[in-house]
User: Which sequence fits this backbone?
């Protein structure tokens, strides 16, 4: 008998009824796993220290558990996805959505960690780490395509230079990855 071939879409894209594709952050699961591991190591270190120095009790053990869970929650990054003309950021307790074709401003906040801040005409606001877009070129393409539409429609007032700089950075990373994968670097 013949083989059945399966067509596969690009990595990180899932299809839901019809042609609507959902693009997800490919590195989110790895970062979630790292957050849980950090919490578990923190818990283990606290329990060992408490057990060795003072003597572990159930009350202190519950406190260390609560601290470890809190650390894991704090370290868990929001899950970024692109669907239905927008970018969505889902945290453990938060949900933010911005329509990329109706962007008003795009800015890069400076500080301890850089954040790309997107705002749209309906008041939606999304803050995300630019490294998410660097690691996921499909998410970047979705944002860039929507921002160009917003610029053509006249809703995007400021932020195109920020997106152009980020685009050059992403292009350089993709080229570097391709060259290293082909052993040319």
Assistant:
């Amino acid at each position: 008998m013949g083989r059945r071939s399966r067509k596969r879409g690009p990595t990180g894209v899932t299809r839901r009824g019809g042609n609507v594709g959902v693009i997800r952050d490919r590195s989110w699961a790895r970062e979630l796993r790292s957050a849980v591991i950090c919490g578990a190591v923190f818990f283990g270190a606290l329990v060992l220290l408490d057990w060795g120095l003072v003597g572990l009790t159930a009350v202190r053990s519950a406190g260390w558990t609560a601290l470890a869970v809190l650390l894991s929650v704090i370290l868990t990054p929001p899950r970024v996805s692109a669907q239905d003309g927008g970018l969505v950021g889902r945290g453990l307790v938060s949900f933010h959505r911005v329509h990329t074709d109706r962007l008003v401003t795009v800015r890069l906040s400076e500080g301890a960690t850089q954040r790309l801040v997107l705002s749209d005409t309906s008041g939606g606001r999304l803050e995300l780490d630019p490294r998410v877009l660097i690691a996921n070129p499909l998410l970047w393409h979705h944002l860039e395509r929507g921002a160009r539409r917003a610029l053509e429609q006249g809703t995007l007032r400021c932020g195109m230079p920020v997106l152009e700089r980020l685009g050059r950075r992403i292009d350089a990373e993709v080229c570097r990855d391709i060259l290293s994968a082909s052993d040319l670097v």
